[in-house]
């Protein structure tokens, strides 16, 4: 699709309400005795100059719109389309929804203008909302939503709301066309692939994820006991919980009263008491270790046990509904909102699933619905492979071939031993061999983005729980640079290129504008890092959208639901009777994604996926077929 | 005789300590987990959807 064709576009938008005002944003309430409903639906074709839809739309009216779009090969255009699609799904129109083509003006706007988050004052961060668009492009029309009551049943207000709804759709179509014209062919490709995934994202948001609240309650007890145990120890040293909640008081306790060494400072030049600091201090002081245990246990209980339970209680459907959001990161990766609304209107619909801890203990909270298997498809060595492709490093590229293990290779080079010998030890689960491989993994994953030896040391201790001296970190750092000689060259070239171009691009053509102040010392390192990281991490996001887009029809035909996007993995819910057939088929699709056709670029190494299957997120086992 | 809710999919189980009050619509169940006792609103349909079945100790032994 090159130029925007008004004739084959149907702009559309819903207004919604519920038995409580907040339910207007929670389509899953429809299944709870109709606590959610649409108050109006408008769909417009600009070329034909007609407005269709109506107030209090019925399921039939919605189906008519979808069928019209299918019969006339039209694309439905919305703004923040996943929400409107989830309304249609809540009305039971799954099959028609999945057969339609969708676009999202909000997505175009983001693709056209996105800049890195750190480059913008947090309060000025763009949200790409329709009202913001109107204020920016057509300021004389801004505020058209001001006196609309979205829940009123007063006939005058219903009429007013209907006219407002029409305006929304007109601005949606104008905005989508405006930003489409801004996009490069590569950006359009990416936006179209992403748009193909919109109904899957909408479905995931609508259905949520079932929580085993019994398990979550027991986990909460465990974490509470851990915190109480640590607090018991701290009480012996006269520490009270209030001190641990205040960074100022905690800083005074650690560094003034106990005389522990300061590790680092915060942005405001105060002595830091963060996770990394406590981790370092825990090696040298039992009191600091108890504080670390207390804070981690309290935080983990609140985030990963209490919050899922709270969301299930609030949602009343046995599920947590973290809302996937595809517009919030410049890299293109999905993020998840755990709440709707702000301040006193905040509603706990989900939990911080994107921050979920690794390991069975935490992840077993999320379970597959009855009759389904949970399946994870993980892109093997995703960032390592894309760095190999981006840098063209021959050693890295050779390690991406089937049968190779880049982490064993790196571990062997660090340890100064034979690679195949280490592979054999790892296969035999030899303890020392596994540790050497772990060291290689740490090097491969941590050093490809210019991490310093000092930072590597901290990552090893905090994230991998591996004691490491600065000398050891220096050795790994030097080994990395000598092993993958083209990677540092890629870093330098990429910085020069992006500085010159004013943007950075993925292999698929997704772009981030990089017009920030490169002379600003505080900003320069971040800008350079984005220049290096974005082609890798952004391509990772593109790869996952391409994967979802290619699986959409198969999922529709086999009642498979997309559930979650997390790190390198895509999670699906597959009806048990279908799993044995679906997993190998889906894996085949993912292993042979049509990169050339979709992006105009064929990766020189195989981009494979691994599958895991299980009844809960914590019980996933490698699929052996 | 010990009675448990056992998750048929994941295998975790919780012993029923008491269900109270027995006939109320919003009755609560006190369960013994690995890490202590907790109270849960007892909605049989939701328990079923989570994959839990009632099992007695002797069933467990037989299994």
Question: Strands, helices and their partners?
Answer:
The complex is a heterodimer of chains A (625) and B (63).
Chain A: E1 9-18, E2 36-45, E3 50-55, H1 59-71, E4 75-78, H2 81-90, H3 94-99, E5 101-104, H4 105-113, H5 130-137, H6 155-182, H7 185-196, H8 198-207, E6 209-210, H9 213-236, H10 241-245, H11 247-257, H12 275-282, H13 286-315, E7 319-320, E8 323-325, E9 335-337, H14 360-363, E10 372-379, H15 382-391, H16 394-399, H17 406-415, H18 419-427, H19 431-446, H20 453-462, H21 470-483, H22 486-501, E11 503-505, E12 511-513, H23 521-557, E13 561-566, E14 569-575, H24 576-591, H25 595-599, E15 609-614, E16 621-622
Chain B: E1 3-7, E2 13-20, E3 28-33, E4 36-41, H1 44-49, E5 52-56, H2 57-62
Antiparallel strand pairs in B: 1-2, 1-5, 2-3, 3-4
In short:
Chain A has 625 residues and is α+β, with helices and mostly antiparallel strands.
What does this structure look like?
- The complex is a heterodimer of chains A (625) and B (63).
- By secondary structure, chain A is of the alpha+beta class.
- Among the domains of chain A are: 6-183, Ribonuclease H-like superfamily/Ribonuclease H (Nucleotidyltransferase, domain 5, 2-Layer Sandwich), CATH 3.30.420; 213-363, Taq DNA Polymerase, Chain T, domain 4 (Up-down Bundle); 394-484, no CATH class.
- Chain A is 52% helix and 13% strand.
- Chain A is built from 25 helices and 16 strands.
- Chain A has a five-stranded mixed β-sheet with strand order 3-2-1-4-5. Chain A has a five-stranded antiparallel β-sheet with strand order 13-14-10-15-16.
- In chain A, helix 15 (382-391) crosses helix 23 (521-557) and helix 17 crosses helix 18.
- The model of chain A has no long low-confidence stretch (mean pLDDT 95).
- In chain B, a hairpin with a 5-residue loop joins strand 1 and strand 2.
- The longest helix of chain B is centred in the C-terminal third of the chain and has 6 residues, at 44-49.
- Chains A and B meet through helix 9 of A and strand 4 and helix 1 of B.
């Amino acid at each position: 699709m090159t130029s925007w064709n008004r004739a084959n576009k149907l702009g559309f938008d819903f207004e919604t309400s519920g038995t409580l005002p907040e339910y207007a944003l929670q389509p899953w309430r429809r299944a709870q005795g109709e606590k959610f409903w649409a108050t109006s639906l408008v769909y417009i074709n600009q070329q034909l100059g007609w407005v269709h839809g109506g107030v209090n739309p019925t399921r039939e009216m919605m189906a008519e719109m979808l069928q019209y779009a299918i019969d006339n090969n039209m694309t439905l255009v919305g703004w923040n389309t996943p929400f409107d699609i989830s309304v249609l799904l809540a009305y039971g129109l799954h099959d028609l929804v999945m057969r339609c083509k969708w676009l999202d003006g909000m997505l175009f706007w983001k693709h056209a203008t996105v800049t890195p988050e750190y480059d913008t004052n947090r309060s000025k961060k763009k949200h790409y909302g329709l009202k913001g668009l109107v204020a920016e492009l057509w300021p004389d029309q801004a505020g058209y939503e001001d006196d609309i009551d979205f829940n009123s049943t007063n006939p005058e207000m219903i009429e007013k709301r209907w006219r407002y709804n029409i305006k929304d759709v007109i601005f949606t179509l104008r905005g989508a066309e405006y930003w489409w014209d801004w996009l490069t062919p590569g950006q359009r490709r990416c936006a179209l692939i992403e748009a193909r995934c919109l109904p899957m994202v909408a479905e995931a948001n609508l259905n949520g994820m079932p929580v085993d609240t019994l398990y979550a309650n027991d986990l909460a007890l465990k974490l509470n006991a851990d915190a109480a145990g640590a607090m018991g120890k701290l009480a012996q040293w006269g520490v009270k919980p209030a001190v641990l909640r205040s960074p100022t008081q905690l800083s005074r306790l650690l560094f003034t009263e106990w005389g522990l060494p300061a590790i680092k400072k915060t942005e405001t030049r105060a002595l830091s008491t963060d996770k990394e600091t406590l981790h370092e201090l825990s090696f040298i002081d039992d009191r600091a270790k108890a504080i670390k245990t207390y804070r981690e246990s309290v935080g983990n209980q609140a985030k990963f046990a209490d919050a899922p339970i709270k969301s299930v209680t609030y949602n009343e459907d046995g599920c947590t509904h973290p809302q996937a959001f595809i517009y919030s990161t410049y890299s293109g990766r999905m993020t998840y909102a755990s709440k709707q609304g702000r301040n006193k209107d905040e509603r706990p619909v989900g939990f911080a699933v994107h921050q979920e801890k690794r390991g069975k203990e935490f992840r077993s909270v999320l379970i597959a619905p009855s009759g389904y298997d949970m399946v994870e498809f993980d892109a093997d060595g995703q960032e390592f492979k894309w760095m190999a492709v981006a840098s063209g490093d021959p050693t890295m590229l050779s390690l991406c071939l089937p049968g190779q293990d880049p982490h064993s290779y790196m571990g062997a080079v660090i340890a100064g031993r034979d690679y195949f010998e280490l592979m054999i030890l790892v296969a035999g689960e030899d303890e020392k061999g596994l540790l050497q491989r772990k060291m290689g993994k740490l090097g491969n994953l941590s050093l490809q983005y210019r991490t310093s030896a000092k930072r590597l040391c901290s990552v090893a201790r905090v994230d991998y729980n591996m004691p490491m001296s600065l000398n050891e970190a220096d050795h790994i750092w030097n080994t990395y640079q000598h092993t993958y000689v083209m990677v540092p060259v890629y870093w330098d070239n990429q910085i020069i290129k992006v500085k010159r171009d004013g943007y950075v691009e993925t292999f698929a053509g997704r772009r981030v504008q990089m017009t920030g102040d490169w002379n600003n010392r505080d900003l320069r390192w971040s800008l350079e890092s984005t220049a290096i990281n974005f082609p890798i991490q952004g391509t990772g996001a593109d790869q996952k959208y391409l994967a979802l887009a290619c699986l959409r029809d198969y999922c529709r035909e086999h009642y498979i639901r997309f559930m979650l996007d997390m790190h390198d993995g895509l999670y699906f819910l597959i009806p048990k009777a279908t799993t044995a057939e679906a997993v190998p088929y889906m894996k085949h699709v993912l292993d042979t994604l049509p990169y050339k056709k979709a992006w105009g670029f064929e990766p020189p190494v195989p981009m494979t996926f691994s599958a895991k299957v299980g009844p809960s997120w914590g019980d996933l086992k490698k699929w052996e077929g | 005789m010990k009675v448990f809710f056992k998750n048929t999919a994941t295998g975790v189980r919780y012993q029923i300590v008491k269900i109270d009050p027995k006939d109320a619509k919003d009755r609560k169940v006190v369960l013994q987990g690995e890490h202590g006792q907790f109270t849960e609103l007892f909605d049989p349909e939701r328990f079923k959807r989570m994959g839990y079945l009632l099992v007695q100790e002797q069933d467990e032994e037989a299994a």
